[in-house]
Amino acid sequence: MADLGIWKREYRLDKMSLGELWVAFFLYPAIQVYLLLAAGSAYVSWRVAESVAPIAVSVLLVLLIYPLVWYLLHRYVLHGRFLYRSPLTAKVWKRIHFDHHRDPHDLKVLFGALYTTLPTIFLVVTPIGWLIGGLAGASSALCAGLLVTCFYEFCHCVQHLRYTPKWPFLQRIKKLHLQHHFHDENRNYGITSFLPDKAFGTFDEEVKGRARSETVFNLGYTRQEVRRYPWVARLTPDLDEEKAAREGVDRRHPRAT
């Protein structure tokens, strides 16, 4: 999806302005899919709903559970080590998180992959809405889940953008998220909310004075892991499998253009 049309060229958040991000964000195919599906879900909800109450409750519950769901997925799936240990799922792990941590400013791999995000959103939110209000509740929950995903994705973009936010909320979440990417990948899993991090003991307000994690860019895919599970290295064009197995995997440094 990311190689269609204007997405054939490179998009570097460390070289983009906020205005350029706005344009790229709404031209990205996955965002367009989310918005179209959200509009369709909202229409279904409007057509079949008999009252506002189940819609409102469904949307509210989606908003409340999303930070926890994201935290659990981010910590135990995206940062888990089971996906790269199978040749059947190594490509998925590489696409959905390894590439992003190796090159946090590449916009193409910052956005989630539709083949993983859409089923996840659907499976998480629609049962909640269905239990509350049947089809109207499920469709409104899906609409909310898709729109919240768009909000998460935009905040995530700003966190990696060469831009200092003026809104204190964005300033704070950007600081905390960049610590996750450039200091310790086992802390601050949140994107827009760090309440689950506080609840589960993975929150860090300040990292000054502490050594940087040795696996912050490779997520534990070390030289030992490359030897045992070489599939991600083989799928990564800038990695030489033998060198990675000998010296390890570090941050990707794109060539200057």
TrEMBL record:
GO terms for molecular function: fatty acid 2-hydroxylase activity; iron ion binding. It is a multi-pass membrane protein. It is found in: Endoplasmic reticulum membrane. The keyword Transmembrane helix applies. One of its GO terms (biological process) is fatty acid biosynthetic process. Keywords: Endoplasmic reticulum, Fatty acid biosynthesis, Fatty acid metabolism, Lipid biosynthesis, Lipid metabolism, Membrane, Metal-binding, Oxidoreductase, Transmembrane, Transmembrane helix, Zinc. Pfam families: FA_hydroxylase. Its main location: endoplasmic reticulum. Its cofactor is Zn(2+). GO terms for cellular component: membrane. Residues 59-202 form the Fatty acid hydroxylase domain. InterPro entries: Fatty_acid_hydroxylase (IPR006694), Scs7 (IPR014430). The chain crosses the membrane at residues 21-46, 52-73, 109-132, 138-155. This is Fatty acid hydroxylase family protein. It comes from Ferruginivarius sediminum.
